[in-house]
Amino acid sequence: AVGGARNMALNDFYNWKARWYQFLLEVKQTDRLRAELATLDDEAKQRLSYILPRLELRIAARSGKLTGEVMQPYASNPYLLRDVAVTLREEGDAAHARQLLRFFYQTQIARGEATASNFLGLAEVMLEGGETDAAVRELRRMALVTQPPFVNLKDAGELLRRFGRNGEGMVFLEEAVKAVPWDAGAKAALEAARSSAAAPTRTLAQLQDAVRNQPGDESLKLALFRAARAAGRHREAANALEVLLGPGMSMLFSEDHGRPEDIESNRYWVEGFLPGQNLSKAERAAVARGLADSLARTDRVEGALLTRLVAEKLAPDPQDAARISVWRAELARRTANAERRPEISENLDQPRVVRPMLPAAGGGR
Q1: Secondary structure (3-state) at 264
Q2: According to the model, what pLDDT value does residue 250 have?
């Protein structure tokens, strides 16, 4: 009985330790977490074996040290890599999530799991990183080695089209129709690709309908963003990109919090901004500047500033510094005014001196 009670107490203790380590990671106390993990004895490592690999991979990602050497010990447990990749993606770290997924799919294929799902997954990771040629090579390899031959050409074509590579996708779809002429799905996909290639520019209303009818088509959301901006519909434009970018980038669309000194971009924001649209860095930066303008015009200056900082990191523009300076000043003004306004209560006395509000300098946009 005493031994059982001791074991239960130890289980509770190590469960608490696991939650504590997760908390340190969530609040970005990476150095402290690394130091605490270094002090664990063999018993602690054994009892925490279910969480330590995940912590170590996430620490490596957070520290920018997620190398092949770090991932290799987990090659025998590739699903661990996939699970950590999902967590990183949810946290907005798209670049390291792709790195883990790439290693996961490559490991699976190298171990003899040369399935269509693994090749398609690897190609998707490459497309998210803008590596179209590498993705096409893997899809070609899939068509040769998976069984039955050529049955996955349609899936390859539709994957490429989903990332805006209509021309490359059409080649696969044409081959699919020739190889499997009775496949009605392949014929329909090819017709859709041909129609898309020949279709005239759609109006804003047509794009709105298309996004509602095809919510999984990411290229339509980007087209809707551009059309809405051209029509001066800035809130709708920002909404279109908010859906496209996903929850990991939600801070870009938040209302102002009045902390201009805290707003800085980092590589997670930069690498996570439209990585899967097969756009060049300059094109991604242009979209970011457009989004920043739309956010400012809808009075979300904090998001505008952060997005413009992302654009500056992607591809600097001579006008970036001036616009960033204007928006920082505007946020500083709002912060100062929050300290100047009176507190409304039953007590007429104020906890601080009430001062006139600082006027806007016309820099909201």
Answers
A1: coil
A2: 77
C-alpha span between 173 and 179 (Å, rounded): 10
- How many CB atoms within 10 Å of residue 177? 19
Q: Give me the DSSP letters along 55-105.
A: HHHHHHHHTT---HHHHGGGTT-HHHHHHHHHHHHHTT-HHHHHHHHHHHH
State residue 279's pLDDT score.
76
Task: Give the pLDDT confidence score for residue 256 in this predicted structure.
Answer: 55
Please confirm whether the linkage preceding 78 is cis (ω < 30° from 0): no
Give 3-state DSSP helix, strand, coil % of the chain, rounded to 5.
70, 0, 30
Report the run of H or E that residue 117 belongs to, with start and end.
Answer: helix 116-128
Q: Give per-residue burial for 202-228: e unless 16+ CB within 10 Å, then b.
A: eebeebbebbeeeeebbbbbbbbbbbb
> If you search the block for the tokens 């902390």, which residue do you land on?
259
pLDDT of residue 217: 78
Q: What's the confidence (pLDDT) of residue 273?
A: 86
State pTM to two decimals: 0.56
Say which amino acid occupies 242.
E
Residues of the chain under the 50 pLDDT cut: 1, 363-364
| Cα(237)–Cα(245) distance, integer angstroms | 13
Contact present, 273 and 245 (Cβ < 8 Å): yes
Q: How many CA atoms within 13 Å lie on the side-chain side of 276?
A: 21
DSSP 181: T
On whether the CB atoms of residues 194 and 202 are closer than 8 A, the answer is no
